[in-house]
Amino acid sequence: MKHTKIVLLTAAVVMMTQALGLSAAAEEETSAQSGEESVIDADSLSSDESSKETLTSGDYSYTLDGDNATITKYNGSETAVTIPDKLDGHTVTTLGSGTFATKDMITSITIPATVDTINSSCFYGCTVLEQVSLAEGNTAFTVTDGVLFSANGEDLIVYPQAMEGTSYTIPDTVREIWTSAFSNTKLTDVTFPDGLLYIDDWAFASSALTSLDLPDTVTEIGQYAFAYCTGISEIDMPKDLELIQAAAFAGETSLTKVTFYDSLTDIQMAAFAGTGLKEVTIPESVSTIGFCAFGYEADMVTKVQDFVIYGKVGSQAEAYCTAEDSENDYSNNFKFRSVMSEEVSDTENTAVAVEETESGWQKYGKWILLGAGALVLLIGGGVLIFAGGGKQKKSGKAAKKDTQSVESEEKPEAADHEDTK
Questions:
Q1: Measured between alpha carbons, how far is 256 from 307 in angstroms, rounded to an integer?
Q2: I need a labelling partner for 154 at 20 to 30 A (CA). Which of 38, 235, 326, 353 fits?
């Protein structure tokens, strides 16, 4: 099964939920039509499902593409659902976005052999779903330990929300975690594989995670991917991470520390709104910071008191501290602290901001010392010339030695100066 990553961005994401749970409006945002980054079969985008005639057969609404049916909604109330392979004589090949969304009575779903495409958020909000199984002959997908994957194991599609257990190890084959795959699950601990690249929208939203250890291979984290995971207190971001999408970590009220690396270029709006962060160090590599990304409560209006941003002078981090956006009616006034470097701690493999707090003497004193040293050399040289008259010049080696002795006299002062920073 070949998939194409489609980025569908609309203003719907602006409707960030204020409560620490997923509202109905938020649930609507998980569909492909309302603005998510979805993993969708490219062929399913050949025409807009919403513009097609919707037909009904029993408990199912569906549309047609030739003689193939795409189920768009399950209207029934069964707890154990076996999806038919035909509707009114048409072969069921696709489960559309949100087909079973918020059907909180379903405990098991069986997918027929004819289905080869599952669109985003198909099982979102199935809070009592314990089991997903495949009819004999289905070669497009596989189920391992109760979890639904693509046939090649690279795409993790859904972990049933009500499945027993609080820990899970994602197989090494997985490269992408699909939209809403783990949302609202009971899992407190998930082990991620090296080689994982993408974590899609709402993937772990409102889950019970208490820690997050992502592999360095992850390059993109989708919208609301870890939103409302209130048990996470610290995150060391992947070293290859390039993009954090809108509201990816919003509502993580226990989050007090986050570490970024210089691969990161894009942090979208409200990415860390409503968290417990009081300060953050943003690397110079970041070229885009969306409005309300840092320093705001979940309402995206109230500013976090005394929020501090560390970064390099002239960087996007500094610009964000005073950024204004008339379209979204907000204006930042955060404290900025310049840093000389983002060093790596000897005891922890995390970036640590080293604040640049030079006083006037510390900032300019070294130049005064250098100037005074040069003046001493000039005066001393004149005395030697006057006193030495016709004496032979020193060899280059001897002259170098004398210069080194002068420099060695200056070094203790320079060292003392650096220690005061």
A1: 12
A2: 235
